[in-house]
Amino acid sequence: MLIFEKGQEGRMMTILPECDVPVSLPEEGSLRKKSMHLPQVSENDISRHYTEIAKKAYGVNDGFYPLGSCTMKYNPKINEDTAALPGFKQIHPLQPEHTVQGCMEVLKTAEQYLCEITGMSRMTFQPAAGAHGEFTGLLLIKAYHESRGDNKRTKIIVPDSAHGTNPASATMVGYSVISIPSAEDGGVDLEELKKAVGEDTAGLMLTNPNTLGLFDRNILEITKIVHEAGGLNYYDGANLNAVMGMIRPGDMGFDVVHLNLHKTFSTPHGGGGPGSGPVGCKDLLAEFLPGSMVEEEEGYVFKHPAHTIGQVKSFYGNFLIVVRAMTYLFMLGKEGVPEASKHAVLNANYMMAQLKDVYDMAYQGPCMHEFVMSLARLKKETGVSAMDIAKGLLDYGIHPPTMYFPLIVPEALMAEPTETESKETLDKVIAVLRSLHETAMTNPETLHQAPIHTPVTRLDEVRAARNPKLKHEF
Amino acid sequence: MKVLGDLVYTKTHEWVRFEDETTALVGLTDHAQQSLGELVFVNLPEEGDDTTAGEVFADVESVKAVSDVYCPVTGVVSEINEELLDSPEKINEAPYEAWFVKITDITDKEEFLSPEEYEELVKKDME
Predict the structure, then answer these.
(1) For A422-448, what is each residue's pLDDT tens digit?
(2) Which residues form the signal peptide (chain A) (predicted)?
(3) Does any domain span residue B125?
(4) Are the C-beta atoms of residues A109 and A235 closer than 8 Å to each other?
(5) Fewer CB within 10 A of the end CB, N or C, for chain B?
(6) Is residue B33 assigned to a domain?
(7) Cβ of B1 under 8 Å from any chain A Cβ?
(8) Predicted structure pTM score
């Protein structure tokens, strides 16, 4: 039931005192003809309404959430404590600089820490999310080529295992996209890359480890091929959780990188956002960075980079998210950051090893922080698809892995357990996945019906996509 | 899985029906629509657009994913099947009637597969 369908005409949350000044209405033409459709409910009604909705929803606080390439890790509660401090929360972006020196120090410190982790020189916190970061990073690449009068570079190379946002961002920036196939081992096909690069190459977009959970062992060769052709290398930070504190994109040969603070650095993700997609770059791109950067002079000051591409978002991005990520980094420290990555990789390999005798793995391990199963054989033999297994998991109160991605793996399920899950949790999920496989072999029909114990059962996804009902009709 | 005897095919699962030397209809094969699942959205080029053999000219979206559709010939889009824009399910229902575009002024084409060769390819695909 929607909030609009609850309550009673005239019910409200406040009692207004009698008006003690003469009533003066706007002129006739400016008045609404019909009253607005507002929910007419008490505070108690609202509180219960949203509690009811929250009970039907599922988040990291409810249970296992192994959404591949999304890093749905636990968000420590101390992040919320620091983000709620009045000095961070009760400020305005137009306040004079000398009154917000502490907040500027947070931005500067976060920049220094994250540049150290990525091997970059400077970083902007303007972009509000990952794809926004990609867009910003590509604008930097474009500004760089244009500043050199190198206008023939119109193409961005993207491997076929990439996130769909990569080609989309490149297109938004006005580049055309060359998709190159992956090699047998799941990495970039060096021969295909050599064929694809040339005088028209603006750059390469790469995720490493990639969406198959594999670290590309040819990474230095790959970035060199692109550099020698005159292009720049863009690092999609979606999978940084596998390598943070261990190896740096800057040392792999990347010139620009975006991070997802809401993935790797434990800030709210998905509907719980807002997100943050900071973009770091090496010196050669720093003069083009968007918005204002915090510089240290006598105290902190905001300065526009010399040849800035302009604003990509108002003010300084989602500042309180940076406060949360900074808290996370302070809590982990320089020992904790690589330790978290090691555990993420260990958890993924443990799950993979415990499942590979029943589920086919798209690529044999060891994997990094995630692994991809292919259910093509299961589907052929039993009719049970990746979708059916995913729906089956819901009945056990487990969020499914990423489905049907990466596109190069048929009937794909991509699982990323993250470092914050205990062995007991992993063992429980492994047992559930094994029992679902057993059900697929013995009684496949039940899985076509799943889920049956959830607030809503199997949805008609085709009808939802073809005839979406997007607004409430009064 | 149906393969029609009077069409030619591509490795990327498009079918081509030549009306004469320089005019052809292009669509998606039965095997392609089966593997994609129920389609919910189709993106077609515009009339008058140039196409290049082997390059993307349309895309189709199922509940699983968005997939590119490649144009097997170089020419000009003279007509698009507007019905598909509102009813993408026609591709699932009758893939060989649900043509995407009519291409005229064809100057170049990909290497096509005969119905037998295409059937062979799909068989290998399914293994």
Answers:
(1) 999 999 999 999 999 999 999 999 999
(2) none
(3) no
(4) no
(5) C
(6) yes
(7) no
(8) 0.90
